[in-house]
């Protein structure tokens, strides 16, 4: 099969490699579309992972089942989306920028006909990350059990892909969603369920948000976790403090503001190496708990997708499939991505 292989720090090639075989609890997916994430670029530029397939997000069709697949879950021919731990050679893992991928069955999302594969390819990392941000880090209400009382939640960086899904899931959970973005994306975020949207570049935005919430805001999600966002979010929170779920680990200067970070790949339930700040599960028991969380999140996501309750982020489809990955990474490096998801149709890759 064709696959994008990391060959060195910041380097990769399109090569022919052997099609992987699914192990226990896994399925082989014939990939139709893949989506690009900032983490793909980060791992590409890291020192580890040479010889591994790049990419995490995918959508495709189940082609082969491994052993120990629970009855009533996946079957051959199912349309699915999900994520893997790309640029990793551990645990038989394989990346998604390829014609086939082995994926853990418990974190697969069922895709209805109303979603195209190129739309569904973006769901994996983004929606599972949102579930961790809202439900695992903060125990906020989910669409499966909406809150009877209105609770304010701030989504900072609402136009990012994670931000757009965080707005939708929080809104479906019964929360009043306050978001930040550039002015050009205000109407988009309102259409997704944000009640109020503020300009993240306006230095008075924290003051405005604090006034709107009566100085009682205790829950925030930081979908940027860089630049000025940590300080700005802290200013929005109540004087008594609060909790901020973050997409990259950091600590705030406010003693009564707690930041919580969880790596989405922990939901695969496998051993992962990483820095201490990643708070990775250390025992088999902890990894099993994360695996069970992943299965719960997959059901929540599959349900809202099947019921048509969420909308996909705008797709930026690049031509020539995997042959255009270099162009996609450059587009991202140049800072041109805005409220969209870079996506590739694998079959468009020149033979």
Automatic annotation (TrEMBL):
InterPro entries: ADH-like_C (IPR013149), ADH-like_N (IPR013154), ER (IPR020843), GroES-like_sf (IPR011032), NAD(P)-bd_dom_sf (IPR036291), Trans-enoyl_RdTase-like (IPR047122). SMART domains: PKS_ER. Residues 8-337 form the Enoyl reductase (ER) domain. GO terms for molecular function: oxidoreductase activity, acting on NAD(P)H. This is GroES-like protein.
């Amino acid at each position: 099969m064709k696959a994008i292989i990391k060959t060195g720090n910041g380097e990769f090639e399109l090569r022919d490699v052997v099609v992987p075989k699914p192990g226990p609890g896994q399925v082989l997916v014939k990939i139709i579309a893949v989506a690009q994430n900032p983490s793909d670029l980060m791992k590409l530029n890291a020192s580890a992972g040479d010889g591994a397939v790049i990419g995490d997000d995918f959508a495709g069709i189940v082609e082969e089942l491994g052993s120990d697949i629970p009855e009533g879950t996946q079957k051959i021919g199912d349309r699915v989306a999900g994520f893997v731990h790309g640029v990793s050679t551990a645990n038989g893992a394989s990346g998604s920028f390829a014609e086939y991928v082995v994926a853990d069955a418990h974190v697969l999302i069922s895709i209805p006909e109303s979603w195209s594969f190129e739309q569904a390819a973006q769901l994996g990392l983004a929606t599972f990350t949102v579930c961790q941000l809202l439900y695992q880090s903060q125990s906020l209400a989910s669409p499966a059990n909406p809150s009877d009382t209105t609770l304010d939640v701030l989504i900072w960086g609402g136009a990012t892909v994670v931000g757009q899904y965080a707005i939708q899931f929080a809104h479906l959970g019964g929360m009043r969603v306050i978001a930040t973005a550039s002015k050009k994306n205000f109407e988009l975020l309102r259409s997704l369920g944000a009640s109020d949207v503020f300009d993240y570049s306006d230095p008075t935005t924290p003051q405005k948000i604090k006034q709107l919430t009566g100085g009682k805001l205790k829950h925030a999600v930081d979908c940027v976790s860089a630049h000025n966002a940590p300080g700005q979010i802290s200013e929005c929170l109540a004087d008594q403090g609060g909790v901020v779920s973050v997409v990259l680990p950091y600590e705030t200067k406010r003693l009564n503001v707690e930041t919580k970070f969880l790596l989405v790949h922990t939901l695969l339930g496998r051993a992962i190496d990483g820095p201490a700040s990643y708070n990775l599960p250390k025992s088999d028991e902890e990894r099993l708990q994360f695996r069970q969380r992943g299965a719960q999140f997959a059901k929540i996501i599959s349900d809202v997708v099947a019921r048509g309750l969420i909308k996909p982020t705008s797709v930026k489809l690049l031509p020539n499939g995997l042959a255009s990955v270099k162009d996609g990474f450059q587009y991202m490096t140049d800072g041109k991505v805005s409220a969209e998801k870079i996506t590739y149709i694998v079959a468009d890759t020149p033979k």
